[in-house]
Amino acid sequence: MTEKVLMPQLGESVTEGTIGHWLKKVGEPVEKYESLLEILTDKVNAEVPSPASGVLAKILVEEGQTVPVGTPIAEIAVEGAEGEAAPTAAPAEPSAEAAAVSAPAAAAAPVAAPSPSAERGRFSPAVRRLAREHGIDPASVAGTGAGGRVTLRDILRVAESAAHPAPDTPPEAAPTPAPSPAPAPAPAPAEKPAASPRPLEPGDRVEPLSQIRRLTAERMVEAKTTIPHAWIMVEVDVTGLVALRERWKAQFQEREGVNLTYLPFMLRATVEGLRAVPQLNAQWNGDSIIYKQRIHLGIAVATERGLVVPVIRDADQKNVVGLAHAVHDLTERARKGRLTVDDLRGGTFTVDNTGAVGTYLTYAVINAPEVGIVTMESIARRPVVVGDAIAIRSMVNLCLSFDHRVVDGADAARFLNVLKRHLEALGPDSALY
User: Fold this and answer.
1) What pLDDT, on the 0 to 100 scale, is given for residue 422?
2) Is 314 an annotated catalytic residue?
3) 422 catalytic, yes or no?
């Protein structure tokens, strides 16, 4: 018998995913929960574990292809199956689903013969379910997915058009415009660098966009064009925090086995800020705002592959020691490429320790659907007026980018001032445990 591997849900609002890299080849054994492939998310490759032990029998979706959530992407011949027949014993309907995604070989030849319109007639379970909910015939929808495949976005587009028809368009004409979206992919090449060649000089190197860089670029453009970013900054005296860390860092390393950095203190302060200003722990929802009850903090981690934002779940339930362990664990696994899909989903707010790369002011891009991101900049010793005297103090800037649809400037300032008061209250005698 065979076990199907399905495209996993990569995020709350994500309807499709891209195959980044297969970690196993056809015919190779795989253990249950062993990493099978990498799926490209908006900012990082997420490893997907095998759902069963056995042998990788078929790869249904090749690297670089994008398919809807729930689409079969591989088949595993489960251990204990009867001989070699297992890979070919898959039911006919899943084979048709797989053929629509990857158009494999001879066994699917009778399926691959129909025209492109017939190819679009094979739909993933998620697409069929969503189409039924909206009373839409998926065969009448022009697909924009790989190979003309109908995606969830296509169904939602048609449903939205049906809910808000053009005033001068009679209902009977609704099926007629269906082919008109087909030219939509045509403008796409105009956005690619290849469509508008740049002059090159000797020694220039042209490198095609990787899938992860392309997805990151698309997400950043989407964030900057759909979210009205605003920015605010406060200066914080962390002389006491520096003394506290110096007092504890050697003992902490020996006792806990991880480094004591400034980030756990920043995360703890952020939790206090989100509790005081829940507008920052929210999501824009079109005609409503969702205020999140739980606090899941994303932490930006620089890796060789690019920026990664794993999530510390229920960060408000952890003290500085617990946050230090969580930061160490996620950072190490991110840099080794060992993050899972669950590590990357569900964040409600993001903290970026940009000071680690030497910056003093940062205008960060919001990680939608979140409504804010705060950065902790480099700590620097500077002359500061203290009372009627000038003293040398350790100072740091905290910078906040926020979604002005959800958060007003007064709330943003109040949030940063909560962080400021929390960090400035720390001193060499503050307790860690």
Assistant:
1) 98
2) no
3) no
